[in-house]
Specification:
This protein is α+β, with helices and mostly antiparallel strands and about 70 residues long. About 40% of the residues lie in helices and about 15% in strands. It is built from two helices and three strands; from the N terminus they run αβαββ. It has a three-stranded antiparallel sheet with strand order 1-3-2, with no helix packed on it. It is elongated. This is Helicase.
């Protein structure tokens, strides 16, 4: 999973003229247990890759800005 995640976000970091920053948004449906578990794995992967989360995490509706 980490390799796939690294590949996805790595594409966003490709440099091109005028690009100043990269933001990754990840969404989860907390009503589906399987999706929550997958999201938690991705969060661990983001941290392993050096990303951090910004903003307040809310249980019902969650949006993370990762960079």
């Amino acid at each position: 999973m980490l390799g796939t995640l690294a590949q996805y976000v790595g594409r966003l970091h490709r440099a091109y003229e005028g690009k100043e920053s990269v933001e990754v948004y990840d969404y989860v449906d907390h009503k589906e247990e399987a999706l929550v578990k997958m999201f938690e794995k991705r969060l661990k992967g983001y941290k392993t890759l050096g990303y951090s989360t910004v903003g307040e995490v809310k249980k019902e509706k969650q949006q993370l800005k990762l960079f």
